[in-house]
Amino acid sequence: MPANTILIVEDEQLIAMMLEDFVEMLGKRVIGPVDCIADGLAAIAAGGIDAAILDVNLRGDETSWPLADALTDAGIPFVFASGGSGSDIADRFRDRPMLSKPFTMDDVETALARFA
After folding, report:
1. Is 1's pLDDT higher than 60?
2. Which residues contact 93 (CB under 8 A, 6 or more apart)?
3. What is d(CA 28, CA 105) in angstroms, rounded to the nearest whole number?
4. pLDDT band at 88, cuts 50/70/90?
5. Could you tell me whether strands 29-34 and 5-9 are parallel, antiparallel, or unpaired per DSSP bridges?
6. C-alpha to C-alpha distance for 59 and 28, rounded to whole angstroms
7. pTM to 2 decimals?
8. What is the DSSP string of 36-68?
9. The pairing of beta strand 78-82 with beta strand 98-100
10. Whole-angstrom Cα distance, residue 114 to residue 14?
11. Nearest to 21 by CA among 12, 30, 10
C-alpha cells in the first residue's frame, strides 16, 4: 500500500514549510507539521497516517523517540530527519532510514519511495 498521508514532525518552521511543500508536490497529503512530542502523539493516535518524517531533535530538549516508538507499535514506517551525522540516533532505531539535512526534493522523494 503506498504511503499517501505523511506526518511531518519538525520544529524549525522554515524546514517544516519546505518539507510540507515537497511532500505535497509529490502528490501526498500532509498531516501537520507538528513541532513537539505531545502534538505528534495526538496525530498518531488520531490515525490516518501512512508514514512519517521525524526530526530527531525537537525544541532543543526533546527527541522524537516516543514518536518513533508509537509509530513502530502502530506498524507505521518512518524516516528520521537530522542535521547531524546520525550518531545521536537511539540504538533501537539505528536501522531506520535517515534523511540528512539539508535535503532536496529528490532526497525527500527517495525517502518516501521506501514506503511505496
Report:
1. no
2. 65, 68, 80
3. 13
4. confident
5. parallel
6. 26
7. 0.93
8. SHHHHHHHHHH---SEEEEESEETTTEESHHHH
9. parallel
10. 25
11. 30
Per-residue cell: 50: 501512512
Contacts for 52 with CB less than 8 Å, ≥ 6 apart: 6, 7, 8, 9, 44, 67, 71, 76, 77, 78, 79
Grid coordinates of 76: 507505521
Q: 3-class DSSP state for residue 111?
A: helix
Q: Say whether 29 sits in a helix, a strand or coil.
A: strand
Show the cell assigned to 87. Answer: 550518531
| Cis-peptide into 77, omega within 30 deg | no
Residue type, 42: A
